[in-house]
# Entry
Amino acid sequence: MTQTPKKAVVLLSGGLDSTTTLAIALAAGFQVHAITFRYGQRHANEVEAARRVAACFPVARHVVCTFDLGKFGGSALTDNRPVPHADRIEDIGRQIPITYVPARNTVFLSFALAWAETLETGHIFIGVNALDYSGYPDCRPEYIRAFQTMANQATKAAVEGTCPVTIHTPLIQMTKADIIRRGLQLGVDFGLTTSCYDPSPDGRACGHCDACLLRLRGFAEAGTVDPIPYLSTSAEHGTQ
# Structure
């Protein structure tokens, strides 16, 4: 008799990290329910990238949740402040950058937790990374552990012992190059994804924001070419 696969909620932003995470969840045998957020971000073309990705994988359901964190401001991704640009990874500041969106992953994981409980599963996947990342506090292992502890005290199913919550973070200790290699092993088409914080109106990546610089270095270190179009890139990574 065929066994019904375990369900999981996967946070899918349309970027290379979340797409690789989705592929990892599927490879582990989970029935994936993907959740994407239109949260008032300026780079909302990532939502369309998430739709493309979800359409290319055997996803049971893909939900786009819409709300506006931009009403609160506090981030260059949701208000009119310019997104920082640089020419080299070394130029990225050591402080938490202004592209940090206050409490974003807490909000996202809370939505995912609510959906997971209605699906009668405790498995949630998120593609956070604590190595090649911009320094956001809600991408660190200690944050994920704290949220998981809270989730197991906050849901009926977990408190009753029928459905404990596990926050899966398969990429958290991987370099961007390792993430790309793993994604390619799993058949991910990174041409479907987007990472840029400041794309052009036609969707091309800027090549100079933190996300672009980290992505480009990852592809260079992985020994392969990033398939997405760029407006320009630094000489360190070549021009596309």
